[in-house]
Structures are given as C-alpha cells and as structure tokens.
Write a structure and sequence with these properties.
This protein is an alpha/beta fold. It has helices at residues 32-45, 65-78, 127-140, 151-162, 186-199, 213-223, 247-260, 268-274; strands at 11-14, 49-52, 54-55, 61-62, 83-86, 108-111, 116-117, 122-123, 143-148, 171-176, 204-209, 227-230, 237-239, 242-243. The protein is built from 8 helices and 14 strands. Helix 1 packs across helix 2 (65-78) and helix 1 packs parallel to helix 7.
C-alpha cells in the first residue's frame, strides 16, 4: 500500500436526502434546526462538504428556496468554513423547480446529467433540463458535483466540461448501489477510476455507496486516492443490526478509514483548494 500522506481526502456528508424518515431512523434530521445540529457534529467529525436537501415539517420533500436560504444562513453561521452543496435531485421537485434555489449561490450543487431507472420510477434528467441547470450554475458561479448513476453519465460530464458547459473544476461522484443503476462492484469501480484518470486526468472524483455498500465504497475510494461521501441520506445503519446514531458516526467511520490508509482528512479550507473553490462566503 502506497502512503498518501500528501493527498487529503474530502469527506462529504449527505445529511438528510429526500427518502429516509424518522420511522427509518430517529436520527434523520428533518427540521432546519436538526440539520444544523447534525451538520455541525459531522463537520467536527471530519466532513468538509454538507450535501443538503430540505424537507417540510411532515418529512416530505421540498425544493422551497426559502427553506434552502434559511439552511444556508444557519450553516454559514454555525459551520462558517464548510462547503455548502445544494441538491438539485429529482425527488424534491419537477423541472426547473429543482434549480429554483441556485440564485442563493451555494458553493456547489449536485447535477445529474442523464436519466436512468430507479426501482419504482424513472429518474428523468432531460437534455434541456440538464443544460438549464448547468447554465444556472454558470450564471451564479456554482461548481457542480456530477452525480453519476451510470457509465454514460461520466462520459457526458467529461464532454460537457470539455465544451465549457460546466462551471469550475470537474468533480464527478460515482453513486454505487442503487438498484437498476450502477452496482457496487469492485471491478466496475476500478474501471471508473481508470476512466477518470485516462479521460479527465485533471478532474477530481469521489464515490458514494448506498445502504450497506456505504462503508465498502468509502474504503475503495479512500484507498484509491479519491474522495468519498457518507451520511444518513444514503445509509441509516452502522451494520445490519445497529442504527447509526448520527451523521457524525458515519463520517467518523470514513475518517477512521482515512487513518488506516494514511490519508489526512481534508479540512474545509483544504477541500476548497482541492476543488478550486473560493474562500468561504460570509
């Protein structure tokens, strides 16, 4: 195993998502106050990016810009250097509603550049919508995190970046373990890493595993020199029999893997430099 002591690892915490409910795990933060408390603890554990969704009081999903504004204001107050990444995912709204909060100018926003089948629905990302979301991110100086659910999404992201359609540095996340989409398979993961190194050598990449795949994919990504994501959006358990007590607990597991592979956990200021982001907004 090669030492990577000069290669800090960015840990992203997906704190809430659109699907998990308190009935799945009471630790899932729903209200703005809960999300801020959970985010602060996750940052203390090593997270430098907070991937944010917002919810209604009954736990249903929302794309309300006012809720995103309140969340961002409180994150900047309580976690002043953390990288704020808004979700433009399809479960929170339809069409351009999904990007209605981009005028708030978060540091980053997720961007899916292609469609695929989920177990009970089509995750639809039409070319027109993808182009509009990418354009809005250009307008407001937001670096997209490409959420790649399929091989074609990686190639599409590279093409869009090469053609100047994506703002800032290319950053691609492999989302692995969603049924009917990209499997959490080691040979597939290795191929994607090779693809990024070959086709986009100056880009950064990360990987996220869904459910029980979270800790497995965390380790693959950390060992391979990439970055990774953990949190209650993707996985509500520490193991088959134990619910995760917090987002911080899941980030701690990833941070422990960084220590195992002799990689420092990136502080938010370091993550900003790695991703070509400006200093935190105040």
């Amino acid at each position: 195993m090669l030492k990577q002591s000069n290669n800090p690892c960015i840990l992203c915490c997906a704190i809430t998502g659109s699907v998990p409910q308190k009935s799945d795990n009471p630790a899932v933060p729903i209200s703005i106050t809960e999300q801020i408390e959970s985010s602060h603890a996750a940052v203390e554990a090593g997270a430098s990016i907070i991937h944010a969704h917002v919810r209604n009081s009954d736990g249903t999903t929302s794309s309300d810009p006012e809720k995103f504004s309140r969340l961002q204001e409180e994150l900047r107050r309580h976690c002043p250097d953390v990288i704020i990444q808004f979700s433009t995912g399809g479960r929170s709204g339809s069409g351009r509603e999904r990007g209605g909060m981009l005028s708030l100018c978060p540091d980053m926003a997720s961007l899916s550049v292609g469609s695929n089948n989920f177990p009970t629905r089509v995750y639809e990302n039409s070319p027109d919508l993808v182009a509009w979301l990418a354009s809005e991110m250009q307008t407001y100086g937001i670096v997209p995190e490409i959420e790649a659910f399929d091989l074609s999404h990686i190639f599409q992201a590279i093409r869009m970046h090469d053609e100047g359609q994506l703002f800032g540095q290319l950053y691609v996340q492999f989302v692995m373990g969603v049924k009917n989409a990209m499997p959490a398979d080691r040979s597939v993961f290795d191929f994607y890493v090779l693809l990024m190194r070959t086709w986009a050598p100056n880009a950064a990449w990360c990987a996220a595993g869904i459910g029980a795949n979270q800790i497995v994919v965390n380790e693959w990504a950390i060992a391979a020199g990439g970055h990774t994501r953990a949190g209650l959006e993707d996985n509500v358990r520490l193991d088959r029999d134990t619910l995760a007590p917090s987002n911080a607990a899941l980030i701690t597991l990833a941070a422990d893997l960084c220590e195992k592979y002799e990689r420092p956990v990136a502080r938010p200021s370091e993550a900003r430099k790695i991703l070509g982001l400006p200093a935190a907004k105040t």
